[in-house]
Every structure is written in C-alpha cells, then in structure tokens.
Amino acid sequence: MRLREVLYDQVMRLREVLYDQVMRLREVLYDQVMRLREDLHDQVMRLREVLYDQVMRLREDLHDQVMRLREVLYDQVMRLREDLHDQVMPLRED
C-alpha cells in the first residue's frame, strides 16, 4: 500500500511539473505569436505604403501620358484642319 501512495505522489508531482511546463510554454508561444503578428502587421502596413506610392506614381505617369497624347492629337487635328482649309480655299476662288 505504501508503494502505491509513493507512486501516486510521484505521479501527481510529475503532473504538476508537466502542467507548469505546459503553461510556461503556452505563455512563451503566445508571446512569440503576438510578436510575429505585430511584425506581420508592420510589414503589411509598409507594403501598403509602398504600393500606394507606386500606384500614385503610375497614376501621375498615366495622366502625363494622356496629356501629351491629347496635345499630339490636338496638333494633328489642327494641321488637318489647316490642310483642309488650304485645299478648300482654292476651290472657293474658282
């Protein structure tokens, strides 16, 4: 009977030790997960800023290209108008 009690006490102490270790490990893992979560959030926010800046630069570049194209097309239309005018004027004189 005494051996049984000794074994039971050892098992209970071991159980307590294991429980304490598991709880400490749980805390350590939780802290690591929270740090990783914060790091990931920081990385996502930095990436978001970088992407936003890139999108804004692309938008500006596209706007500049559209404005240049508009100028070119306007110049072409004006030249065509002048050419047409030059072709029509001699016909009116006749």
Proportion of residues in β-strands: under 5%
Q: How many extended strands?
A: 0
Residues in helices, as a percent range: over 70%
The low-confidence runs, each spanning 5 or more residues with pLDDT under 50, are none
Largest sheet: none
Number of helices: 1
Query: Shape from CA axes?
Result: rod-shaped
Structural class: mainly alpha
> Mean pLDDT, as a whole number?
96
Cα end-to-end separation? 135 Å
Query: H/E series, N to C?
Result: H
As a whole number of angstroms, the C-alpha radius of gyration is 40 Å
Description:
0% of the residues are buried. The protein is built from one helix and no strands. By secondary structure, it is an all-alpha fold.
List the helices and strands and how they pair.
Blueprint: H1 2-93
Notable features of this structure?
94 residues; 1 helix; single chain; mainly alpha
State the gist of this model:
The protein has 94 residues and is mainly alpha-helical. The chain has one helix and no strands.
